[in-house]
Amino acid sequence: MSGIDSPVTDRPVVVVGNGTAAHRLVESLVRLGHRGPVTVLGAEPVAAYHRAGLLSVLDGTLPPGALSLAPAPPGVRVLTSAPVTGIDRARRRVRTADGSVHPYGVLVLATGARPRPPGFDAPGVRTLRSLADAAPPPEGPVVVAGGGLRGVAAAAALRRCGHEVTLVHPGPRLAHRDLEGPAAAVLAHALEESGVLLETGRRVVGREEGKALLDDGRVLAAATLLVCAGEVPETGPARTAGLRVRRGIVVDDRLRTSDPLVHAIGDCAEAAGAPGSSLASAWEQADALAALLTGTDTPYRPARRVLRPGVAGLDLTVVGPRGAFGAEPVEGEETVTLSDPARGRYARLRLRGDRIHSGTVVGFPRAVAAVGRLYAGDRPVQSDRLALLLGSAGGYAASGELPETAVICQCNGVTRKALTQAWHQGARELPALAAATRATTGCGTCLPAVRRLCGQLAEAPDPDPDPEVPQPMEGTANG
């Protein structure tokens, strides 16, 4: 049997895109027992890598190879340098740039998003979406255009590696779509303390050699202009194929497009009226689709929005619907605020009943971890709200000696103990630790902490063997 009449687990699956969403999908398909052939078509010339770690490559913290994801499971064919040039839905075929044709029973679009263009055409403008983009810039001043959370993180990374950096943002305050005023002020102060120059309420409108032109007529020195003006879902292949597209590729609660044999996941997909906005949501969609394609009938429900931007040196999380901080409070809603600008800390939680409806936490590392977990799991908050914000409710510190129970990778719930055990079992490099534990494969903010733990473990003596475990005698084989 073949095509639409064959069992779901036997159908050939073709995945367009080779990012983290696609990688998660094929892993989950194999784990859940998919028996048909799986082909992944990646446009980039490299194997799948952890895109959330690009900032760590940009600032020199990690080499590019450290972002590599585990190889695809056996039986999955991955083609790189294979951009898709056409989708024939009538014949159920996908064509790539080299003329190859790939038949499918199920097609999955995981085409991601592309950087939003700067609004002017000029050579020498960089973005930050691919591994090639993350190559360290040449010596000289850098202007970052766009002060959303991504632009802020990029500016901080470039400053850490010694560049003179100016961050230009058209909004009234940094990350104005995600942060309220006091939280944005803490963020701005932290950047300025690190040496980043800020230009808010201004736009970069042009580029000349060695210069960036502002909308008020001023000229900034810029050996490099890095544009971080947001991203746009990559919907080109879907549009050309006649699928329904709004801002993203429209999908239903089974992640199906307007063609029931074509699905979409990740940044390119628009589920429940909103395009994907985080790695966590892409993973959830990948896992949900793998389950649907292997026999479950549980509709996909978008998870709660938790942002953990990778701004090194500043613990920050935003939870709740976009724009919730500016909405009018409802009757019975409780607001908890703790502002400590002198120490670079601010938190505000809006609670309905004993659960978090929305919140922003800056500069409280333990609260960042705890608030994210409580909101994501829709779990009740303890009655002592101050203890939650000050950290006695759990979480981890980003530096120093951590207890075994400390959760280092918040996205995947990976503890120091789990990482240490994986290390002693042979996973002694970042890619191996990521494959063994999934640490660092989420938002990427734990990369420095995991790398630091690797260094500590490498310098520490091997632990004494457990006296309760029989040890092999010298000179004998240990099979």
Keyphrases for this structure?
single chain, about 475 residues, alpha/beta, five-stranded parallel beta sheet, 28 strands, disordered N terminus, disordered C terminus
What does this structure look like?
The N terminus and C terminus are likely disordered. The two termini are 44 Å apart. The strands form 8 sheets. Strands 3-2-1-7-19 form a 5-stranded parallel sheet, with no helix packed on it. The protein has 479 residues and is α/β, with parallel strands linked by helices. The protein is globular. It has 11 helices and 28 strands.
C-alpha termini separation: 44 Å
User: Helix/strand-derived class?
Assistant: alpha/beta
Mean pLDDT: 86
Number of strands: 28
User: Numbering strands along the chain, what is their spatial order in the largest sheet?
Assistant: 3-2-1-7-19
Count up the helices.
Answer: 11
- Biggest beta sheet attributes: 5 strands, parallel
| Helical proportion, percent range | 10-25%
Shape designation: globular
What is the radius of gyration computed over CA atoms, rounded to a whole number of angstroms? 24 Å
Name the poorly predicted regions: 1-7, 393-400, 465-479
Percentage of residues in strands: 15-25%
